[in-house]
Amino acid sequence: MLLINCPYCDDTLPELEFAYAGEAHIARPADPSKLSDEEWRDFLFIRTNVKGVHAERWRHINGCGRFFNALRDTVSDQFVTTYKAGEPRPEPKTLEAAE
Amino acid sequence: MTQYRVTGRGRVDQGTPVKFSFDGKTITGCKGDTLASALLANGQHLMGRSFKYHRPRGVVTAGSEEPNALVGVTRGKGRFEPNTRATMQEVYPGLKVESQNKWPTLAFDLGAINDRLYMLFSAGFYYKTFMWPRSFWDSVYEPFIRKAAGLGKAPTEVDPDTYASRYLHCDVLVVGSGPSGLAAAMTAGRAGADVVIVDENSEMGGTLLSEPQAQIDGIPAWEWLAGAVSELDALPNVRRMTRTTAIGYYHQNMIGMVERITDHLATLPEDAPRERMWRVRAREVVLAQGAIERPLVFDGNDVPGVMMSGAAQTFLNRFGVLVGKTPAVLTSHDSAWHTAFDMAEAGAKVAAIVDTREIVDIGLQDRAKELGIPVKLGHTATATKGRLRIKGVRVNPVRAGSAGSGHWVFCDALLTCGGWTPTLHLFSHTKGALDWDADARVYLPGRKSEAVQIAGAGRGLWGIGAALDDGAKAGTDALKTLGKSASVPSYEVQKDRIGTGVFHKELPTDRSPGKAKAFVDFQNDVTAKDLRLAVREGMKSIEHVKRYTTNGMATDQGKLSNMNGLTIAADALGKEPPQVGLTTFRPPYTPTTFGAFCGYHKGAQFEVTRRTPIDSWAEENGAVYEPVALWRRAWYFPKAGEGMHKAVARECKSTRESLGIFDASTLGKIEVSGPDATEFMNRMYTNPWTKLGVGRARYGLLLGEDGFIRDDGVIGRMRDDLFHVTTTTGGAARVLNMMEDYLQTEWPDLKVWLTSTTEEWATIALNGPNARKLLAPFVEGCDMSNEAFPHMSVRECTVAGFPSRLFRISFTGELGFEINVPARHGRALWEKLWEAGKQYDICPYGTETMHVLRAEKGFIIVGQDTDGTVTPQDAGIGWAIGKMKPDFVGKRSLDRPDIVAPNRKQLVGLLTEDPKAVLVEGAQIVDDPNQPKPMKMIGHVTSSYWSETLGRSVAMAVIEGGHDKMDQTIFVPQADGAPIKAKIGTTMFYDPKGERLLVE
Amino acid sequence: MTAHVSNLGDVTLAVVPPVARFNLRIAPGDLKAASKAFGLDLPAKVGQGAHEGDRSAWCLGPDEWLLHAPEAEQGTIVDAFAAIREKVAHSLVVISDREVAYGLSGPRATELLTTGCPIDLGRIKVGNAKRTVFDYAQVVLIRDAEDEWRLEVWRSFAPHVEALLTTAQRELASGL
């Protein structure tokens, strides 16, 4: 069972308090009617399925209730970092500096 | 005193005899014995039969790695466990044990015929022997395999025991309480860290229990051990756990541990669980699991009486039992020499020490001479004598790798040692790297992926002194990470047994290797020959060899066999072991009961059963329940002698004719509140909400972004800035999560908040022409007339004095109300309505009647008439879409090419030609029953009921292009009999104009 | 649900009498106005509690508070918040009946909770609260004293949670 850091609670807690919520940084288009069928299809269905560091969403559903983002390595299953919804994906450089 | 017990030796209480039964025979052991030590004290080596060949087998080890001595243990009804390790089961007065895999008796077993047919059972026999003729599979092979397969008997009765679980957090978890574990725990404990130390045995000490001769800091080992244990017990920050096995090592230092609580007790204390699963989260883990002795592989190495030398030493020193009076030793490692010495000193006449090595420490040789033990260096073993118990071993000198002529050494036990394998199972669970040490020829811990230290024999160190020092260092290293410091204690150990040795593939022989039964995996009966055959037949990776031969796949998970298997396979491939690989260790470390995994989740607590505030009334009134999501809901209320169909017909009729009462409390309820509530609702739901007046309600339809129906429900406007949203029972949590998702991540600028009120309210639905007549006298603060309180309205008022949100809505087509009151009043209100309703023959109805009544009206159930691929147009509820709204969740998808494509499956009504025929839900539909098979399916039945109201069956179905097929005939093929003919039509079967809603 | 008490295994387990209970959602910037309406300074950090007389508040999420007050004051509090709604957007929802509260007290109360709570309970300070899970149920744990907890759980989950707590309580009493 993983431990996950909730950026809103500023606390690291058991996975049982959290729920996975799909890939991160896929914003709903401001005006979907302007999108072509292909663009809309990509928004709906196309995901990166990365091997390595994956940006994904989690919800602290049995805690503070907030959705947040995380970078997790899909090979080692280890979290690299977590950050609040709306914040940009941390650059690798920022991560190194933080370590 | 039993024959093989050595007076004054061992830690068992020789003054307290314990009587138990083995295959019906009464056996006497001592308090503190394991089943294995007690049987050995009585000269009983034969403890079981092997899995495939039914060969007689004796105990091989003294620990949890035991492959052979598996027994059935029983203590009364439901308390039978197969495959219990005799080496781990402690004896208690009255313990009942039976041996396994034998018929009719352990000593004479007919299944042993397999042993004579062993040519049939070579590696991969499953894949070869039973290939043809094909027709033999069902009639011959499968019954044969089923009979032969499996160890022991599966229990047949319900387990009456309870199982517990705990979460535990600590600074340092130490696994194993031998010298290195104890030193680590003491070091960390003294520095104030929260320490947990666990051991799978009944007492702590590990190797120290088997080596009383050692002196630590001038104190005899057992005295030192007692001191260490009491020191740990005196520290409030240290938790010491015995009979507790760390079974799995999971992410971020979570360790699963199983504590055995009552299996060693003669009487079961009330309410005590049998086992307890601990989920421990440790900041630092110290693995001090020691090493497991490796068997030597030679013809006849599985005869009862052949066992590991370390086990013999443990049986002697810890349990006071000589495993034989004239034992021989066969070894490639120094450690077995000490076993021979200990046994000689305890009165055994050691027949010989046979060492495969040419050169052995001179001190050992001198000591053997002193004790009068014959020594043979540079020898191999090529055969054993004896069937139910070893009588002798044939030994041959080895010159340049080949065996010379042999002679027999007679013995009543053969103690073997092929070196020691560091125990790295838990470390391997973490995906820590195992590095091959080419000099020592063992795998040692390499790169770590967790905060873990490996100490002592687990990383190839030998001797008590080295283990203590290494454990202390591991404890200090753990403290360092925790930000604590301690000086590393150092230990002075005398009479330590620091040894060395070599590893072998199967031993050289002067006989035909093709005929040798040189066992590698005792439990699965895999021989060296099988492994070489697997390689010859093309298996190149150890993973393939393992699966082809089943080496290491038995309940001991290859603790004894993996390394020998790898060494032999590597040799056959002409490669070094790491090039062939090492099979992955997986949890659990030792076999674990299902009970331990289930914990408290049994019986009524198997999973959550949610109950409404009115559930107790339904139970008292004979409701039959059905599970809906996690809820249990009243399904129907049978009267005496009624089955479901009769009860439902009566409930439908009563409701349509007079009055029905229904518990709708499970409906999801969400309070959508804030200045932007309307905007939020407009974006989430397909419907327009801006113009919905306060006090009015509307059917709301929720899509996914893909355009498919996700949920629906009636939504009432309580204030300009407040909606009372209802959802389906199963969709409540999902809908709230979806709303929160959009609100938090797409539209964080909206000032609106969501709160689940599902459980704040108890919801009672009244339906039927007399609903208003019953309800009106209870209501204050709401004009109940058709004009003032029209269909699809909501009011805040009181009902029977309880504050209420009262909806006038209907899911039945009858005049209907849904009364929401604070949950604690739900049952009280129900009972008041029930009492007063008797004048109208009020009828409680359940979910089945609710389904029938709504189907008669063509109302859909999301998840039954829709399946995640149905759009509003498909379902015929396109009217619920706000066409003028610029956007809502799923709107863009309604123009997707595949959504607007012709011939989509659409929801229609079906009336069977034979009004009595009730279609089966899920049944497939074809347009021509005479077409060749496989027929083209054009849809399926989604809802189907007997309608008492209409005196015929009604059904709904999704059918390709269904909306354009009105009045067409379709067919529903039957498994037996002619296809059922039905006509497509509207889903509105009853009161299509909705006049019944308007009853005065 | 009948209020009852069981005293076993060094833990007293009881159903706590009802209180007026609210879910308050408000932007953190408007906390002052909400504090004024409720009559106590609402804590700003997730997990923290604040107490004044017989009113309590705990911060459960960045914009979410659990409020407790005596039952009789439910209407007054609803009115107090309604009065500021025009000026200060917020959501105050009565959840007095949504949950059932259990009180656990005694030397082994915390240990009893470890039968179903995966979090490190030692990190919840006295006076604070946290939403988490007990077994399969979402709960709010309130720590009233070192050895005293309240567990609030949605009403329909209460029978399951109560059955587990009493089973574990008997287990503690067994001494094994």
CATH class of the domain at 18-26 and 45-99 in chain A: Alpha Beta
Q: In the CATH scheme, what's the topology name of the largest domain in chain B?
A: FAD/NAD(P)-binding domain
Counting helices, strands and paired strands, the structural category of chain B is alpha+beta
Shape of chain B: elongated
Helices and strands of chain A, in order, run as EEEHEEEH
Query: CATH homologous superfamily of the largest domain in chain B?
Result: FAD/NAD(P)-binding domain
Uncertain spans of chain A: none
Would you mind describing this structure in some detail?
The complex is a heterotrimer of chains A (99), B (1000) and C (176). In chain A, a hairpin with a 7-residue loop joins strand 4 and strand 5. Chain A is 16% helix and 34% strand. Chain A has helices at residues 37-45, 92-98; strands at 3-6, 11-14, 19-23, 53-59, 67-73, 78-84. Chain A has a domain at 18-26 and 45-99: 2-Layer Sandwich (Folate-binding fold). Chain A contains 2 helices and 6 strands, in the order βββαβββα. With 99 residues, chain A is an alpha+beta fold. Chain B has 1000 residues and is α+β, with helices and mostly antiparallel strands. Chain B folds into 6 domains: 1-156, 2Fe-2S iron-sulphur cluster binding domain, sarcosine oxidase, alpha subunit, N-terminal domain (Ubiquitin-like (UB roll)); 163-291 and 422-494, FAD/NAD(P)-binding domain; 295-418, 3-Layer(bba) Sandwich (FAD/NAD(P)-binding domain), CATH 3.50.50.60; 510-585, BFD-like [2Fe-2S]-binding domain (Arc Repressor Mutant, subunit A, Orthogonal Bundle); 664-824, Gyrase A, domain 2; 902-996, Beta Barrel (Elongation Factor Tu (Ef-tu), domain 3), CATH 2.40.30. In chain B, the strands form 13 sheets. In chain B, strands 8, 9, 12, 13, 14, 15 and 29 form a 7-stranded mixed β-sheet that branches. In chain B, strands 42-43-44-45-41-35-46 form a 7-stranded mixed β-sheet. In chain B, helix 5 runs parallel beside helix 11. The longest helix of chain B has 18 residues, at 464-481. Chain B starts with 12 loop residues before the first strand and ends in a 15-residue tail after the last strand. The mean pLDDT of chain B is 94. Chain C is of the alpha+beta class. Chain C folds into 2 domains: 5-16 and 98-174, Probable tRNA modification gtpase trme, domain 1 (Gyrase A, domain 2, 2-Layer Sandwich), CATH 3.30.1360; 20-94, Alpha-Beta Plaits (2-Layer Sandwich), CATH 3.30.70. In chain C, 23% of the residues lie in helices and 38% in strands. Chain C contains 4 helices and 11 strands, in the order βββαβββαββαβββα. In chain C, the strands form 2 sheets. A 6-stranded antiparallel β-sheet of chain C has the order 1-2-8-11-10-9. In chain C, helix 1 (31-38) runs antiparallel to helix 2 (74-84). The relative contact order of chain C is 0.20. The chains are: A alpha+beta (99), B alpha+beta (1000), C alpha+beta (176). The interface between B and C is large, with 45 and 44 residues.
